[in-house]
Every structure is written in structure tokens, then in C-alpha cells.
User: Fold this.
Amino acid sequence: MSKIFCVQDRLSVLDFINSVAKECPKIVALIQVGSGAEGFHDERSDLDFVVAFDSNDSMTEVMEYMHQRISEQYSLLFFSQSEARHLQVYALDNLLEIDIGFGCYERAAALKPAFRVLFDNSGIVEEKMTKSLEGMDERIYSGKLKKDIETACDFAWAHLMHAAVAIHRNNYFRAVGELEFVRKVYIDLVGDRYKLEGTVNREIDKLPDFEKEAIRSTFVTSDSQQDLWTSLMNLTDLIYKELEGTEMPVLKHMILEYYKDLK
Assistant:
């Protein structure tokens, strides 16, 4: 394997992607998205792009073109393509990851606030993406919050109860698994509240310290029953507080009675 990529390697790949995209007559614009659009977080940030093509009929051809040009230029450790998701994922042999989304330029829209138009032959892509930012938080987080609340109400209480039973039976790994499910639900809800992306805890480090400390209190630090019960109780308090005002099938006082009966 080649050496691990450095900043200059990443810049070189960025320039290459830009140049080959410009050479394809069906590609109208190239947009850099993610952290790199505003300045990379550090030397290990990857590359994210959106390729805007001329019509929906061109997607397969454009995806094949980008794959051919990149695979000719670089040795690949990994390549994956999903036409359904309009996405290609590459890992070069120096471990640089490249994610490329695809879409028709007439439907250009920003999915996240950070983007940088590298070139635009249509003259309208940047305007469309900027316009799409209006009301973005409301579109993204209102729908996600509703879905996350439904998930929490439907499933959190059951997994909390399963965790309690597992702790009672000394089934450590089952208990940890049940707690992890509920913690993820809780983190998603908190992320929605702060308009942060909770998927794989991507932006959760941006939470205020007191919120992060609350999440830490739910982690399991040993396999003792007492520590497991402590984590379960902390998580129960947090998620029921987050869901105040919603109709939970199992109320908090009921689930606490259930715990008490098992201890």
C-alpha cells in the first residue's frame, strides 16, 4: 500500500476530479460539499463532491465516466456504486476516501449548508443551491424529529425493559446492546434539538458540555450489575425527560416499578 495520504495528496486529487469533470460534456457543474467546502477539519478529512449533469438520462453514463477516469488514475482499495442513491464511494490505496453524489443540474439543491461550486457551466447551480438553504433546518429537522420521536415512543420503553431483564439475569452483553439502542435514540433526539447530525454521533461533539456529560453517564464502564443499573437509570431519566409532553405507551413510573421488581 502507498503511504497514508497527506494534505498535498488530497489537493492533488481534488484538482484531478475537477479537471476530469470539466472534460465531460455532459457534466454541467461540480460542487464540493462537506467539511472541505469551508476548509478541511484537519489533514485526515476526506473529499466529498456532487456532480451535476445535463439531464436525468445522463446519470449512468456520467457515473461510468467518473469511475473510469478515477480508476485509471489511481489504485483503488474499494469502490461502491448505488444508482438508487446516486452515489459513488472510493477508497484510494493511500486511504483517501472520495464520495461523489450525482444529480441533474436543474434540480440542484444543498443538503447541508456547506458547499463550494468549483465550476458551473449553467450559471444557475449556485443560485439554486443557495436558494434551497432557505428553511433548510425546518425541512430537515422537523421531519427527522417527528420520525425520531415516533421511534422513541414505539421502541425505547421496550428496550429499556429488556435491558433491565438482561441485567437481572447477568446477561452483560445483551444488556449493553439494549442500552446502546436506547442511547442512539436519545442522541438522535438531542441532535435534533440542537440541529446537529446524530448519525454515528457525527456532530455530537459540538453539544454543550453538560449534554455530553449526561450522555457519558449512560455508558457502561464495568460488568458489575450495579454499574449496569446505574447506566440504565440514567438513560431512563434522560430519555423520558426528552420525551416530556409525548404519549409514551409505558409511563416512567411504570417502568421504574418494573425495575424495582427485578432488583
